[in-house]
Amino acid sequence: MIPVHLKHKPVLIVPNYEEVDGKMAYDSEAKGLSLGLAQWNDRGKVDISAKVWRHTGGKWSRQSEELPLHRVLDLAILIARAKLHFVNAYKYPHFFDPENPQIDRIGLQGDAMSVEICTDNDHIEEDIELFEQALKNDDELLSERLRILSELLREAGY
Q1: Cβ(2)–Cβ(53) under 8 Å?
Q2: Which of 63, 76, 113, 130 to pair with 83, CA 20 to 30 A apart?
Q3: What SS3 state is found at 100?
Q4: N-to-C CA span, the chain
Q5: Are 21 and 28 in contact (CB under 8 A)?
Q6: Could you list the pLDDT tens digit for every one of the 158 residues in the chain?
Q7: Sheet harboring 65-68: ordered strands across?
Q8: Residues with Cβ < 8 Å from 126, sequence gap 6 or more?
Q9: For residues 81 and 92, what is the distance between their CA atoms, to the nearest angstrom?
Q10: β-strands 65-68, 48-54: how paired?
Q11: Nearest Cα to 23, choosing from 128, 140, 147?
Q12: Rounded to an integer, what is the distance from CA 107 to the centroid of its chain?
């Protein structure tokens, strides 16, 4: 049962998230998801947030995460863009062009979100290969969720 006595006030919940949490399904400390009233709300200001509820087995974890909805969507955009990048990234020796590490600029609110390979990472060549392999390994989990998201967005008129 997702707690309702804390500062985040759940409105819509996924009480069985541990059963569908990707590779951790049925053995996850992420017990639920919720959309609700954000814990950072001040009087007269109401924001909605998404929260991942973690439980250690003995208590609700301080590592439970709460995110504003626009950040959840920004992460979904970033995941979709990453998957798209790796469709053709095989053309580069280490899955990216070191001369042009920016792979996209996605227009948002009059500016653009830059999507780049993190060339400041001293182990980027090794790490990007591991990342690409993990994307391949998780393709079924991610693609299923992206297809569902795509269908729901179409139904909603987007």
Answers
A1: yes
A2: 63
A3: coil
A4: 33
A5: yes
A6: 777 777 778 777 888 899 999 898 999 988 888 877 777 777 677 888 888 888 988 888 888 888 888 989 999 999 999 999 999 999 999 999 999 999 999 999 889 999 999 998 989 999 999 999 999 999 999 999 999 999 999 999 99
A7: 9-14, 30-37, 48-54, 65-68
A8: none
A9: 17
A10: antiparallel
A11: 140
A12: 19
116 contacts: CB under 8 Å, gap ≥ 6: 101, 102, 103
Q: Quick one: which of 144, 122, 126 has its CA closest to 134?
A: 126
For residue 8, give both structure tokens: 């985040």
**How far is Cα 51 from Cα 139, in angstroms, rounded to an integer?**
24
The first and second tokens of residue 101, run together, are 């590490």
**Structure token pair of residue 117:** 């390979």
Question: Contact, 138 vs 131, CB < 8 A?
Answer: no
Closest C-alpha among 2, 9, 68, 65 to residue 32: 2
CA atoms within 13 A on the CB side of 66: 17
Please report, as a single letter, which amino acid is at residue 114: S
pTM of the model: 0.83
